[in-house]
């Protein structure tokens, strides 16, 4: 739902940089995962281009990896 909303309102998927607003082309969604080491935020890249089932599988895998203590660079 978030990815679809960002396609409809692209300015929300942006950041302020110096004197301009940078609107991002890709819609990446980060999800906070509680781990013994603290919160980790794995990212579902290009979420707007993926079916819900794919997002669900990726989220499950990323959550399991985060809770297993894998280095965040592996996400």
Descriptors for this entry?
75 residues, alpha+beta, two-stranded antiparallel sheet, 2 helices, flat
Explain this structure.
The chain has helices at 2-8, 52-67; strands spanning 14-17, 20-23, 29-30, 33-35, 38-40, 43-44. It has 75 residues and is α+β, with helices and mostly antiparallel strands. The model has no long low-confidence stretch (mean pLDDT 90). A two-stranded antiparallel sheet has the order 1-2. The relative contact order is 0.16. The longest helix has 16 residues, at 52-67. The chain starts with a helix and ends in an 8-residue tail after the last helix. The protein is built from 2 helices and 6 strands.
List the helices and strands and how they pair.
Elements: H1 2-8, E1 14-17, E2 20-23, E3 29-30, E4 33-35, E5 38-40, E6 43-44, H2 52-67
Antiparallel strand pairs: 1-2, 3-6, 4-5
